[in-house]
Amino acid sequence: MLFLAADGLGHVFPMVPLAWAMRAAGHEVLVATTGFGLAAAEAGLPVADYAPDTPQGAEWHAGLAATPRLLADTYGVPDLAERMREGAEPVDIRMSSAMLAGFAEAIVDNAVAIALGFRPDLVIHESMCPAGVVVAAALGVPAVRLELNPARTTELSEHMLRHLAPTFARFGATPAPDAAVLDRTPPSMVVEPGGVPLRFVPYTGGTVDPPTGPPPSERRRVLVTIGTTLPEVTDAGSLVGRLAAAMADLDAEVLLAVGGADPAALGPLPPGMSTVGWAPLESLVRGVSAVVHHGGAGTTFECLRAGVPQVVLPHSRDTPVNAGAVAARGAGLAVDPADFTAAHVAAVLDDPRYAAAAAEVRREMAAMPAPSEVVPTLTGPAVAGDRRENAQVAV
């Protein structure tokens, strides 16, 4: 089983529980990724780097650089990217799909080379890594897509396949849809039926002495976290500080997860407000009454799994989708970060409907098939089959 993930903890960590389950069932597993994704090796998984000589994040920059060309080649509008940036046309799914296809182009040759050495029977790729579809088609084996977010990316995938048509042709392969789609979304939040349900099992890295979170309190407690990706592109301390200031008068304890930022940079904190460094989110959400966060997929799913109401402050990329899914289910609020106030947190704390909806979702997720229960579906004839006769490169 070849697992293919983009650079980033939020891309590779969701694949770890299923990779563990595959190994426990006796299958050979290899994770192909790069950059921050190489942390999968710390989970005891074999890892191959498809961009070993490339500076951190360079493949994403390659995708951005290729976006204007891919948009022009696919839609026949040479200045489409420029028109989108200037606001003449809405920046829509075409822009994202072109960027992700450009990312795939940047890594696909090395990814195919890794696959040829490993000879997988199945390629499992996360939804932001369409190179997996090209690799699978080139080797004549099925591809399975793991959705990272509550929303299905079928339309995005279709656009990416259109952009990658020349890349498929270069390998003599024919674009084909994924043989199956793994959907971690709770049943009541599914927007597109037909996926293979997969229970969300958190993996946030190993710790020798895992934090247990702050001691129990009689007061309501609110957790504030901005995940692992956002601190890479912004001043984490400044952002957490602004959120803390907005909640200074909230009638609740506030726990600020500052990650690697210096807590001292926040200055004196009001009574009832404290900080914690990097820690597994599953340990921090225990006993809290609400979570304020950035809208990352991993954080969103962990809050749903814990049955905790959320105030989601989306910033870019997929976070508006995640925030919208939470709000639509009634398990929390989606709020523009610029408009955030303590009143939004008070609303989810004081209105029991948010906690009730979050509890319903928690029960739904607990009843979904665990990774070990999904392995037979992925390795059975309905998905895996035997398609090596369709290989376009020597295997």
Keywords:
single chain, 395 residues, alpha/beta, Rossmann fold, 2 domains, 7-stranded parallel sheet, 6-stranded parallel sheet, globular
Please describe what this structure looks like.
The protein is an alpha/beta fold. 41% of the residues lie in helices and 13% in strands. It contains 16 helices and 13 strands. The longest helix has 26 residues, at 93-118. The relative contact order is 0.12. The model is unreliable at 228-237 (pLDDT under 50). Belongs to the glycosyltransferase 28 family. Residues 243-378 form the Erythromycin biosynthesis protein CIII-like C-terminal domain.
Mean pLDDT: 87
**Strand adjacency order, main sheet:** 3-2-1-4-5-6-7
Helix content: 40-55%
Instruction: Name the CATH class of the largest domain.
Output: Alpha Beta
Largest sheet: 7 strands, parallel
Q: Report the strand count.
A: 13
Q: Assign the CATH architecture of the largest domain.
A: 3-Layer(aba) Sandwich
With helices defined by DSSP (H or I, 4 residues minimum), what is the helix count? 16
The geometry reads as globular
Q: pLDDT under 50 segments (min length 5)?
A: 228-237
Could you tell me the CATH topology label of the largest domain. Rossmann fold
The CATH homologous superfamily of the largest domain corresponds to Glycogen Phosphorylase B
Structural class call reads alpha/beta
Short structural summary:
This protein folds into 2 domains: about 1-200 and about 370-390, Rossmann fold; about 220-365, Rossmann fold (3-Layer(aba) Sandwich), CATH 3.40.50.2000. It is built from 16 helices and 13 strands. It has helices at about 10, 15-25, 60-75, 80-85, 95-120, 130-140, 155-165, 165-170, 230-235, 235-245, 280-285, 295-305, 320-330, 340-350, 350-365, 370-380; strands at about 1-5, 30-35, 45-50, 125, 145, 180-185, 195, 220-225, 255-260, 275, 290-295, 310, 330-335.
